[in-house]
Amino acid sequence: xxxxxxxxxxxxxxxxxxxxxxxxxxxxxxxxxxxxxxxxxxxxxxxxxxxxxxxxxxxxxxxxxxxxxxxxxxxxxxxxxxxxxxxxxxxxxxxxxxxxxxxxxxxxxxxxxxxxxxxxxxxxxxxxxxxxxxxxxxxxxxxxxxxxxxxxxxxxxxxxxxxxxxxxxxxxxxxxxxxxxxxxxxxxxxxxxxxxxxxxxxxxxxxxxxx
Length: 211
What we know:
211 residues, alpha+beta, Arc Repressor Mutant, subunit A, 2 domains, two-stranded antiparallel ribbon, 10 helices, 12% strand, elongated
């Protein structure tokens, strides 16, 4: 493709990605073109590389996550950008992050198996929150008495933590304990949000189920 055409394609992709309210993969980007004008996937990737390069000295970047490509504010500028929203960022307890980390590394896994690893009961509110955020889903039922649900992470989980696949999680052998795993997940956040102490609801639920 000629340089002028490639530059034009870069601008088209920039416009489409800016207008999109979700990540777009190569197929979705190709669908914005008429059939006879649709660029090859290799050409789309080349243009996307150009978009990434053009963001090098800007306050935002083009990132690839599990669902596709998206623009996002660079993490170092997120504290300022987040002030545009009056709502306070969602706060997540350490118990929730530990539960999510166990599911990410041990999936598919049942609630009882999570409790065996953590050594305490898993709050119903924690599972509900993870399901509502669409970070985990039920992928089956274990063939044991009671047929407990088996949980696994979702594409939305990967997107939120800026991952393209679970392979990008740090090797489990390099992590000493659950607290380290939670810190690794926190480090993946690019939104500027930082988990705080457990909310009153989480803390109360966690405390009651430990007693």
